[in-house]
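ARCHIVE CARD
Drawer: 12
Card no.: 0347
Subject: one protein chain, sequence and derived structure
Cross-reference: see card 0346
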Amino acid sequence: MVCIAAFIVLLMISVPVLVLSIVGKFNARVHSAVTPFWKMFKKAWHCVGRRVTFRACDSSFKDDIKNSVLSRLILKHKKWVKPVSAAIEVASVLIVVVAIWSLVEVGKAGLSIYVYGTCNVVRPEACLLGDGEVCSTEETTKRNFVVGWFTGWGELFAALPARVKAWDAAEFLPDNANFLSYNQNNSVALDILDPGCVNCLKSFNNQLRAGFFEQYNVAVVIYPIRDSESDDGYKFANSYLISSYLEAVRSFKTSDIPAPEWLIIKKLFTEKDEEIGIDYQSAFNGLKGLTGTPYEVEKAETMIKDWLKGFGFNDHEIEQIAARAHSDETRVIIENSHNLVDNIIKTKGIPTTIYDGKRHIGVWRE
C-alpha cells in the first residue's frame, strides 16, 4: 500500500517535478532539489507496474519511503518511530481508498452527464460541467447516503437505454394535445415544463425568438415538480394550480382559440404584472426574498380567469374550465404526466425537449 500511495501522491506532483527537472538541466540548484523526487517517482512507477501484473513490489522502495520520513525522527524521538510508522501505513491505505473512490465518483459523474446532462442528478443546477440551467425533478427529501449511492448507480444504468434510443416526440403526446402553431409539413416536437421553473421560461423564450414553433408542431407536457417539504407539496408556489388550468383548458379549444394552454404559457412566460412591475412567473412564484410573497391562491386563480376572458372565453366556459381544473380527472392526468416523465422519458431535469429523434435536457438553445 505504501508504494501505491506514494505513486498516487508523486503522480499529482509529477508535472511540476517534470518541469523542474527540465529547468534543472540549466540550473544545478534546481537539479539537485528535484532529482530525489524524480528518482522516487520512477521507483514508484516501477513498483505499481509490478503490482498491477500481480508481482511482488520491491521491498527496498517501501523501506526508502519510510526511511526518508523516519530518519530524522529516530535521532530526536525514538519512541515516536513505531507509531509514526504505523500511521504511514494507515495513511497509505486511506490515500489509496480515497483515490479509488475519486475515480469511481468521476466515472459516475461522467456517466451521469452522458445520460442526464448533469453530473449531479439531485441538484443539476449545481453541476458546473453540465448544462446547469435546469430545474431538478428530484424531490428534496434526504436519502440514506449508502442506499442513495447504490440507488443512483441503478438509476443511471436503467436510464442508459433512454439516452441512446431514437426519440419520437409523437409517442408521448397528451391525448388532447394542442400545438402553438401547426403545419402539416412540420415534424412533431415536445416540450416538458413546469410553469414555475425559470429555466422553462428561458427555454420557451429562446424557442420563440428562434422560430422553433414555426419549424415544428410543438406540444407540451405539464410537469409541476413535487417537493414534499413545501407547504403545498410542489417546488414552486401556484405551480400545481397553473398546471391544473393548463390541463383543463386543453379540451376547450375552438377555431378562434386553437391552443389555449399555449396562450396561458405565453402570457406567463413573456408578460408582466404592470401593477407590481415584475414578470408574471415571478409574481406567481414569489421567488422568496427577491420579489416578495407569491400571489395568494385566490388572486392567482382570479388572474388566470382574467386571462381566459381576455383570450375570448365567456363566463360560463371559464366556470367549466375552473371546475375541470379542480376535478379528480385533472389530478389523475397530472399524476400520469409525472409517471411519463419520471419512468418512461426518464429525465432528471426540466425543461426537456424532444425533437429530431433526440432528447435535450436543459434550456433549449439554437
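Annotation on reverse: The first strand starts at residue 135 and ends at 136. The mean pLDDT is 80.
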